Amino acid sequence: xxxxxxxxxxxxxxxxxxxxxxxxxxxxxxxxxxxxxxxxxxxxxxxxxxxxxxxxxxxxxxxxxxxxxxxxxxxxxxxxxxxxxxxxxxxxxxxxxxxxxxxxxxxxxxxxxxxxxxxxxxxxxxxxxxxxxxxxxxxxxxxxxxxxxxxxxxxxxxxxxxxxxxxxxxxxxxxxxxxxxxxxxxxxxxxxxxxxxxxxxxxxxxxxxxxxxxxxxxxxxxxxxxxxxxxxxxxxxxxxxxxxxxxxxxxxxxxxxxxxxxxxxxxxxxxxxxxxxxxxxxxxxxxx
Length: 288
Prior knowledge:
single chain, TIM Barrel, 8-stranded parallel beta barrel, 12 strands
């Protein structure tokens, strides 16, 4: 049985990692290379790095920044933003990307998916689909033009799969930055319609939301951005919660399996007796 994956999303705007709220408001967090280094050290399974300003401003990927950031990353790295042709994909691979995420280009020219897949293999292509809920049901969202399209996300996901995409990165625009949990209805409709792995994103507050989406859908991976940046031990705590019900990777010394948490899944203080006993424990420095 394949293990479920927990993925961190790094949104980069004008060279700075940002927190996104509804695709409208962006709050600065810090430098990409530091974010990648921390997430790698904390035991994240994969990282998706998205330059959200590249496509909007008709720019090419920032290869130098991606190369600098990739040096700090030792897990599979997917890079997206500003991709319009296969030569850019080649440059991104040379800069350290393991996979590429194609969003805006697939809306304009879905044949690019096939071209990338034919050159680098289906496993290299992550097709990104942004979705909003309208009066006429779910529709694919064009984030550059800030409007919904007439395209059904189910039909579009099938087209992407048939074109050679290896994975679907499904993002709920309505849930982005909301901390309301994943849109299970949307996620199930897509994951049940295609035969390739689906990564869901949008709305996660903590590990409980990831546990819930794994329980109620057949997605291969759950992705989140905001709470991984702002919650101490976020990756380790998430995995300690999810691992009780799902088959996931546990690769760090600190697993928090027996720890207690508050209602927001923050670590609760241990009893004084436990803390005294821990003073005499010898813990070797972890090397990842």
